From TrEMBL:
Enzyme superclass (EC): hydrolase
Domain of life: Bacteria
Keyword Hydrolase: yes
Domain Beta-lactamase-related: 23-406
Record has ATP-binding as a keyword: no
Source species: Saccharopolyspora rosea
GO molecular function: hydrolase activity
EC number: 3.-.-.-
Pfam family, one: Beta-lactamase
Protein name: Serine hydrolase domain-containing protein
Length: 412
């Protein structure tokens, strides 16, 4: 593993060092109050790490501290990586964004849409629009997640074994076939709903490339970018680096995850169905490398993954009619506000910071993970930020908007 360290004095890149310390003081209070087990934060400007700090424990029971090399389950921060992978194949001519998903996964032909009734007896009708690859990239596919608990279709996903992620007995193709067999929430392109769509993209990566998803990631993304810590599983030799996963109790304090033992063991076994939507484990070093590649328009240290115009295209708002998430999204999916934010091909995109009620730049793109991890890239300010912790769900505390406030107030 490459060392992770501060590379430039903050003042040299327009950051006030005393104001940067507000980040550490603020989030240290979360640890002191027992609301977070521990965290790591990295702020980079002009391609150089200007602020890097850790606080608290990667495992509360043993007293093991978070270090700069700690490994975290990044959950949905896997999605931008899968989106980059699919667009790499798009650049090679493997498909058009308007191609039907059924061109790659035949079970997605003849989809049906939920119209009413309970999960035990849902009423459906034929979909009036085919599900296309751009629908998957923008979460406008009509698919859903079992954990949404907003619709009887979510309940169908739970009954099918997807409550804790991928169904235990299915490979990735089997998962896709199971999702295709269940009704959509809406006709593709008509609304935004957080879903297993990026897992379906992971299967398309496999079919279009002829490689298992983990191998495509390793050979085409992780090795070129020097992301040696990132994968769907880790070696047992790195067990002491893995942060323990916690859940919020009724008071918002970090409590042991009820499935901690099973999740810990699962981290050492390659999954039967690798989740392009939420399955990766990574580190601050590695995700910083990924964000730097995006900031530089698809290239880092001579390794080009995407053309710069592709990155610019991915990080525009692709929602129908230029709508924001507040207008188009079904339900809430994090603690962050949806107004003023659109969605591109794998990323949330800020169109209007005033409407978003958060200090940032137009064109900033970002995403986060279920265990309260987050990142963003601000091309206007030449800025990237990575925040890693392990507390579920991400809606427990307003970490992401507060992190924005504290980072941007340090820019001078």
């Amino acid at each position: 593993m490459s060392p992770l360290e501060i590379e430039v004095e903050p003042g040299e890149v327009g950051l006030d060092p005393s104001r940067l310390q507000r980040i550490d003081r603020h989030f240290a209070q979360y640890v002191t109050a027992g609301k977070l087990p521990g965290w790591a934060v990295l702020v980079s400007r002009n391609g150089k790490i200007a602020h890097l700090s850790t606080c608290g424990m990667r495992d509360i029971a043993s007293g093991a501290a978070v270090r700069t090399d700690t490994l975290f389950r990044i959950y949905s921060m896997t999605k931008p990586i899968t989106s980059v992978a699919i667009m790499m194949l798009h650049e090679e001519g493997a498909f058009e964004l308007t191609d039907p998903v059924s061109n790659f996964i035949p079970s997605f032909a003849d989809l049906r849409v939920y119209t009413g009734g309970p999960a035990r007896q849902p009423q459906t009708r034929p979909a009036v629009e085919e599900m296309r690859i751009w629908h998957l990239l923008t979460h406008t596919s009509g698919l859903t997640y079992a954990f949404n608990h907003l619709n009887p279709v979510d309940e169908l996903y739970r009954h099918a074994g997807f409550e804790h992620g991928m169904a235990d007995n299915l490979d990735l193709q089997g998962c896709c076939d199971a999702w295709a067999d269940m009704p959509l929430l809406f006709d593709p392109g008509r609304a935004w709903n957080y879903s297993v769509a990026t897992d379906v993209l992971g299967r398309i990566v496999e079919i279009a490339s002829g490689l298992p998803l983990d191998e495509f990631f390793r050979t085409r993304l992780f090795e070129p970018l020097g992301m040696r810590d990132t994968g769907f599983s880790i070696d047992r030799a790195d067990a002491d680096r893995l942060a323990t996963l916690y859940v919020a109790d009724a008071a918002g304090r970090a409590a042991p995850h009820p499935r901690h033992a099973a999740l810990h063991e699962a981290a050492f076994e390659p999954p039967k169905a690798p989740s392009g939507g939420g399955g990766l484990i990574s580190s601050a070093h590695d995700y910083h490398r990924f964000t730097q590649m995006l900031l530089r328009g698809g290239e880092l240290d001579g390794q080009r993954l995407l053309g710069d115009r592709t990155v610019k295209y991915m990080t525009r708002n692709h929602l129908p009619g230029g709508a924001d998430l507040q207008t188009l999204a079904l339900g809430a999916f994090s603690e962050a506000a949806n107004a003023g934010k659109g969605f591109g091909l794998g990323f949330a995109v800020v169109d209007d910071p005033v409407a978003a009620k958060v200090i940032c730049s137009p064109g900033e793109f970002s995403w986060g993970g279920l265990a309260s991890t987050a990142f963003w890239v601000d091309p206007v300010e030449d800025l990237t930020v990575v925040f890693l912790t392990q507390l579920m769900p991400s809606s427990t505390h307003p970490l992401r908007p507060q992190l924005h406030q504290l980072v941007y107030q340090a820019l001078v």
